[in-house]
């Protein structure tokens, strides 16, 4: 599985530099930061950190980050981006940390490539201190983006989305033993004009739609 992402660092980051990609990143990052609320001095695990493009804003708030990923090229990019933080190759379903190691844990768009989502989330809870936050974001099965990705993957045997497990909001909530809050974002389409997309996003947020492409859940570890 790690090899699927080894060629991703450049295309992944380049897409987020396009007008619509930049909007997607802005919308997603706003939700991550609002729910995670990173504070100076906190120890935070970023599980499935990729190249670190979402890790960096968390670190800039003063938190000390440990990032894990299964792709070495992704980790090298993240380490270069954040040389004062720790990055290592590890499996989210078998984290190499003792219980209650982190104040908060976060995983952003990694769970969709993990079949045993319950085990992954159980590991995040295990390494999070009591009272700490666990924030998980994934691709929403109810979104038109998921339908498009699955359809295109059928035509491309090398697509990473042939290995994806899209989940609904309630499915994600049910993976943890305590009550959480679920939200979705990115209600616009990939080919929408960015200015139009911003208006669509505001409308989807105001209506509290559950069909956004970005599904994010927050739990308090108790």
The structural class is: alpha/beta
Total E-strand runs: 7
Average pLDDT, all residues: 93
- Sheet with most strands: 7 strands, mixed
Number of helices: 9
**What's the helical proportion of residues?**
25-40%
CATH class: Alpha Beta
Number of individual domains? 1
How far is it from the N-terminal to the C-terminal residue, by CA? 33 Å
Poorly predicted segments:
none
Explain this structure to me?
By secondary structure, the protein is an alpha/beta fold. It has helices at 2-5, 9-15, 19-36, 55-60, 72-81, 117-126, 144-154, 169-173, 194-207; strands at 43-47, 64-69, 86-89, 102-108, 128-139, 180-185, 214-220. The protein has one domain: Rossmann fold. The mean pLDDT is 93.
Structural topology:
Elements: H1 2-5, H2 9-15, H3 19-36, E1 43-47, H4 55-60, E2 64-69, H5 72-81, E3 86-89, E4 102-108, H6 117-126, E5 128-139, H7 144-154, H8 169-173, E6 180-185, H9 194-207, E7 214-220
Parallel strand pairs: 1-2, 1-4, 2-3, 4-5
Antiparallel strand pairs: 5-7, 6-7
Task: Record keyword descriptors for this entry.
single chain, 9 helices, 222 residues
Task: Summarize it.
The chain has 222 residues and is α/β, with parallel strands linked by helices. The chain contains 9 helices and 7 strands; from the N terminus they run αααβαβαββαβααβαβ. The longest helix has 18 residues, at 19-36.
């Amino acid at each position: 599985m790690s090899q699927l992402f080894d060629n991703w660092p450049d295309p992944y980051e380049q897409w987020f530099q396009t007008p619509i990609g930049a909007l997607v990143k802005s919308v997603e990052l706003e939700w991550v930061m609002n729910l995670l609320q990173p504070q100076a001095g906190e120890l935070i695990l970023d599980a499935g950190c990729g190249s670190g493009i979402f890790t960096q804003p968390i670190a800039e708030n003063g938190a000390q980050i440990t990032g894990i990923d299964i792709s070495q090229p992704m980790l090298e990019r993240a380490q270069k981006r954040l040389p004062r933080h720790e990055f290592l190759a590890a499996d989210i379903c078998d984290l190499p940390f003792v219980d209650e190691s982190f104040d908060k844990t976060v995983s952003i768009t990694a769970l969709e490539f993990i079949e045993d989502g319950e085990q992954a989330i159980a590991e995040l809870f295990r390494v999070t201190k009591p009272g700490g936050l666990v924030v998980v974001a994934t691709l929403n099965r109810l979104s038109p983006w998921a339908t498009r990705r699955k359809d295109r993957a059928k035509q491309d045997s090398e697509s990473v989305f042939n290995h994806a497990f899209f989940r609904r909001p309630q499915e994600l909530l049910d993976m943890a033993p305590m009550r959480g809050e679920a939200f979705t974002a990115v209600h616009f389409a990939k080919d929408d004009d960015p200015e139009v997309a911003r208006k669509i996003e505001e409308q989807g947020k105001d209506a509290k739609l559950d069909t956004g492409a970005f599904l994010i859940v927050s739990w308090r570890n108790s």
